[in-house]
Amino acid sequence: MENKQKLTKKSLISRTAFALGNLGHSAFYGALSTYFIVFVTSSMFSGLDKNIADKLIGLITSLIVFIRIAEIVIDPLIGNVVDNTHTKWGKFKPWIIIGNVVSSVLLIIIFTGIFGLAKVNWILFAVVFVILFITLDVFYSFSDVAYWGMVPALSEDSHERGIYTSLGSFTGTIGWNGLTVIIVPIVTYFTFLATGKHYEGAPGWLAFAVIISIIALVCAFAVALGTNEKDNLIRKSAKQKTTIKDVFKALAHNDQLLWTSLAYFLYSFAYVVTNGVLFYLFKFVVGKPNEYWIVGVIATIIGFCTSPIYPILNKFIPRKWLFASGQFFMILAYLIFILGRDNMLMLTIGLVLFDINFAQLVTVLTLTDSIEYGQLKNGERNEAVVLAVRPMIDKLTGAFSNGLVGFIAIAAGMTGKATAADMTPKDIHTFESMAFYVPLVLAILSLIAFLAKVKLTEKKHATIVEELNNKLISGQISLDTDDTSNSIPVSKDSIMLTAPVDGELINLNELPTKFPGTGFAIKPASGKVYAPFDGTIKFTFTTKHVIGIESENGIGAIIHIGIDTVNIHGEEFTTHYLDGQKVKSGDLLLDFNRDLIINNGYDDTVIIFFTQPKLLRELPSFKTDTFVHHKDKLGKITLK
Fold first, then answer.
1. I need a labelling partner for 56 at 20 to 30 A (CA). Which of 74, 341, 384, 584 fits?
2. Could you give phi then psi for residue 507, rounded to 5 degrees?
3. Per-residue pLDDT, 235
4. Which residues of 343-372 are buried (b: 16+ CB within 10 A; e: fewer)?
5. Residue ranges of the alpha helices (H) in 482-582?
6. Rounded distance between C-alpha atoms, residue 204 and residue 637, angstroms
7. CA distance readout (Å), 82 to 147, 348, 387, 438
8. Radius of gyration over alpha carbons of the chain, in Å?
9. DSSP assignment string, 375-439
10. Using one digit for the tens of pLDDT, what is the confidence trace for 65-87?
11. Range with the poorest average pLDDT among 48-62, 226-240, 305-319
């Protein structure tokens, strides 16, 4: 069955499905954010009076910037809607499907030019376009927020989350950069089929939109069918309904989320601005616009390398230092852009260093881990809201950078028919000051903010998960929810409890970590854990050290293997069941390596807690300091 060293078929399917999701997601966003504007300026209004066309182009470009800024407020609200969604398919999958279906249909309609409405009535076209585009963008945001918000629901283990995130980032690179390869051939080919002419015309753009929409839908359904939300104890214990006030309160009181967001904002602003001015650098400063393709090739190659290698590096290097190394390379790149831009070899090295960055991966993972941090600190778990912060920052810095890049171009005289020969030393200095010196300062500030203020390391997160888990199963945090239907006994009023492991019975108050909950513990003599009664496996932590089991009449128990063993990440833990499987008392549930636990400095005691002690009328009187064998009867548990 499962263990840390062996990738199971179920896990492989889940990882592949999640990764496919961002392939279509990124391709869709690239078509919407980059190539839609090309379509608008080149083909959407062909045949229309130039003055009217210019007005409509101005309206569309202004609207996009406005919407990006407005999403500072909109995305957290969308995240709150997702967080408050409760269906049999989970909270994320419905919005991934709904968001993709609606936005894909609207993308195709917009790429038709709204069926030529501008040529009939351009004022009506403007009104309809505003409505359609805002609706499209809102539903795309729903799918975006739901997709990345799913990461903490797929696993509570920080390392496993890193694998999902890096896979998603890798396929996202393919989806985004792949458009640069296919866009011209697709648009030209389908335009030729429709008109017999070789150029990028409206029929080709429509075909492009249809193809991208189909890819996005196929990938969205792959996520819905191939992944599985883990309905574990920690997620169940969180507040089930949050208000808008709760959302902004949770964000404001989560200092690790705020510092991580600030560090990422500073990095993202610098990165996006620099990407926006690199074309101007090649055309007006270096004087080699035909060499600009190097930028895209380097970004694609580095993107293919950094995402897959991240989980490997993170096994040996904490993500804090991976973030720092990326910022250090970025700072070196800016120095090269400033001092060595006239040498193509040095400029190429600078571009390589500029793209070697793990900031987005580290940010997503740190924000993901801040969910448990916020839950422990504030009692609220806002998965989708928290994961909406990163794309919200991307949109915000994108809007700001668009304005700044335009200002740089105007201030440096890099507009119209100007060439590199027209640039004066003053123009070059103006360009460098805003294009490289300002981003250089931002990169330095980002590095300082992350190193000085972000304390949520992988080890710290593991401790938080364990503390949350211990508080939950010991009764310090209530497990009660508004839905009590699952808590009502449905049949027998008692069950027979058997020993789940060979070893010596001990009281909870004898443990090195105090647990005031209802239950007992066994100092194990072997590394095998058995079912303590007939029931159904409700959940298993990704780290496999926590198993939830519930009897037919609603008695719930947690089997917790070891203390602080979350840090072992499930290594040499082997399960012999599937979540949701019915088991009989005495069935083998799990093997674990006691020597590995002890040699790593942890306690291997197996602890059993009852999750709803208020429902229990009578518990067995456990004779401590007594050696028991698995399947030994410990007594009856009776319901009120």
1. 74
2. -80, 155
3. 54
4. eeeebebbbbbbbbbbbbbbbbbbbbbbbb
5. none
6. 70
7. 10, 43, 11, 37
8. 28
9. HHHHS---HHHHHTHHHHHHHHHHHHHHHHHHHHHHHTT--TT--GGG--HHHHHHHHIIIIIHH
10. 777 777 667 777 787 788 778 88
11. 226-240
The whole-angstrom separation of Cα 81 and Cα 291 is 46
Determine the Cα–Cα distance for residues 468 and 458; give it in Å rounded to an integer: 15
Q: Which two tokens stand for residue 440?
A: 């250089």
Q: Which residue has the tokens 């903010």?
A: 449
b/e 539-555 (16+ beta carbons within 10 angstroms → b): bbbbbbbbbbbbbebbb
The tally of CA atoms less than 13 A away on the side-chain side of residue 85 is 26
C-alpha span between 590 and 434 (Å, rounded): 60
Residues paired with 607 in a beta bridge: 521, 560
In the block, which residue shows the tokens 């897959």?
308
Give every strand in the sheet of 503-506, ordered side by side: 582-583, 535-540, 546-550, 556-563, 603-610, 519-524, 503-506, 627-628
Per-residue pLDDT tens for 144-202? 888 887 887 787 666 777 788 888 888 887 887 777 677 778 888 998 998 888 777 88
Contact 224, 93 (CB under 8 A): yes
Residues 331/443, Cβ–Cβ less than 8 Å:
yes
Which residues have C-beta within 8 Å of that of residue 185, sequence separation ≥ 6?
none
Cα three-residue angle 426-429-435, rounded to 5 degrees = 140
- Token reading at 112: 């038709």
> Is 560 noted as a catalytic residue in this protein?
yes
Backbone angles phi, psi at 241, to 5 degrees: -135, 125
DSSP string for residues in 599-615: HTT-EEEEEEEES-GGG
In whole angstroms, what is the distance from residue 175 CA to residue 418 CA?
A: 34
Tokens read off for 593: 């390596």
| Assigned token pair, 353 | 């260093």
* SS3 label, residue 227: coil
Neighbouring CB atoms inside 10 A of 191's CB total 23
Rounded Cα distance between 546 and 148, Å, is 25
Catalytic residue among 25, 461, 560, 569: 560
- Return d(Cα 33, Cα 586) in angstroms, integer: 58
Look at residues 372, 87, 28, 371 and name the one whose alpha carbon lies nearest to residue 216. Answer: 28
pTM: 0.64
Quickly state the pLDDT bin for 245 (edges 50, 70, 90): low
On whether the CB atoms of residues 557 and 608 are closer than 8 A, the answer is: yes
Residues 6+ apart with CB under 8 A from 342: 286
The C-alpha atoms of residue 470 and residue 466 are separated, in whole angstroms, by 6
The span from the CA of 562 to the CA of 602, in Å, is 7
**CA max distance for the chain:** 92
Distance CA 149, CA 235 (A): 13
The identity of residue 231, as a single letter, is D
